[in-house]
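seq as requested:
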Amino acid sequence: MSDETQGRVASRQDARRRNILDVVRNLFVENGFENTSLDMIIAQTGGSRRNIYDLFGNKDALFEEVMKDQLKTVLARTHVPDDIDDDRPVREQLEQIGLDFLNGLLRPDVLRTLRQFIVASGDRPELGHRAFAAGPAVLYAQLEAYFTKMVTEGRLVLPDPKTAARILTEMFKGGMELKAMMTGDHDISPEQIKDHVRKAVDLFLNGALPR
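struct tokens:
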């Protein structure tokens, strides 16, 4: 098989995989994990059980891939600078990280998928562990590396960059995603997000104690 033919085959497989993930995400959101069967998935995507198993494995593995795909989408939108030569003020850099992160996390399709995943992973903690490693843990590590560089360059004073990375991430979220998932109210304006991120960065950088 020539490289060109292999490329076309890989491209078709990628397109097939993308289509299945999109369809399955919608089915899980609409029906829940337990009420979504492989027969329902096959009916909307075509193909066969063998095709699904070859691409993803069983239903648990397929649901895990849907969740990881959503998390990767959020992470891809969140640009944590890896170049210490970025001469923008630290406050501006942190605000951009927060905006990128929240705008990805608070997308209705991401929130609906997260809600279903939390329900399904209650009886499948191993799914939760793997999803955490593919999503939050990646962002924590990126921020930790960023903070470590900033401390080395004297642009920040942080005794524990690892803990600071986790704290800032949670400050960015500020319970906004939790409220949206619990209430179903996804109507969060860009102005609300921007204001929240600005305040989170202010509190993170300035602290709450008098100087």
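The CA atoms of residues 98 and 197 lie 6 Å apart.
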